[in-house]
């Protein structure tokens, strides 16, 4: 290259690169109608409220050194801001944990003796409350509803439970203890729960059944959809799921989205809140090559974004946190300072929209991210 050409390239690079980098933050994403799917979320007004702003930063006060946890399988934030954590104490899920779909040596191992549910102070990570010892065999999903009830799933017990606010024992238990199955009375390693304001709820079931079940507030089964499909995502159609691992409800939009983990995609269906007959109708799929696997998702109504954490495939994609807008586009990514994520397993946005928590299976920790720090 001639010296003047080198200079020219330098000037262009120096002056225009910052503009390109800043572009995503100053130009709100416009909807790309019809690019991938015809009807997206069907509610164009939601695009206009899409949050385009500062990136998400690791809050350096977390993980708190005060907290001792095992594998963190579930995390959720209550309406009061309290951070709920579901962890496996001194038990781990390894190659000897299951024989087929059944928990191996249940009698010999018994329930986990550690307190498996912790309530942490959002500012400091201080443990305000701990309970759940001698109740669970292999914790998985944790959800807290608008009334403050805690919902958990246990993949060894094959059960789903609702623990009323302020109490430590469930008032609703679904599934048969330690018995896997795929009928109306049994789950097979159920993974997560999502609850509407009126108490209707959805269960993702799970590692061996690729289905979503919807119940009324008393635990009566209303409908179910989806089936296990272990082939490629491109052949799975709209209802073929391969480990539906996490649920998030977009209540205002009447959508229930599922992390279809092994297919590396997010499947969104009609939740049927307004019209029960539409529950389970396919609405939209969010797929990006960078995902690899999708472990967990959490919708944040305040900023109208879905947060996701992914997992590695043999393709060697990077493990990250993602923010996705209502069009399904990746708006940004985030990860902890230092070595980044190990194996994130669950993600939860705070109801005030400012904070995001990620629980990991390895290393055993809960990390907090905030927008305000920026
Ligand atoms: C679980 O309990 C055992 C026995 O009391 C204790 O040694 C261990 O540190 C606890 N582990 C966690 C993660 O709480
Ligand atoms: C949690 O504990 C901290 C420190 O003891 C206290 O300041 C805070 O008010 C507690 N939060 C709740 C919700 O009890």
From TrEMBL:
It comes from the Eukaryota. Ca(2+) binds at residues 75, 142, 346. The chain crosses the membrane at residues 6-27. Binds one Zn(2+) ion per subunit. Keywords: Calcium, Disulfide bond, Glycoprotein, Lyase, Membrane, Metal-binding, Repeat, Signal, Transmembrane, Transmembrane helix, Zinc. CDD domains: NHL_PAL_like. Its cofactor is Zn(2+). The keyword Disulfide bond applies. This is peptidylamidoglycolate lyase. It comes from Pinctada imbricata (Atlantic pearl-oyster).
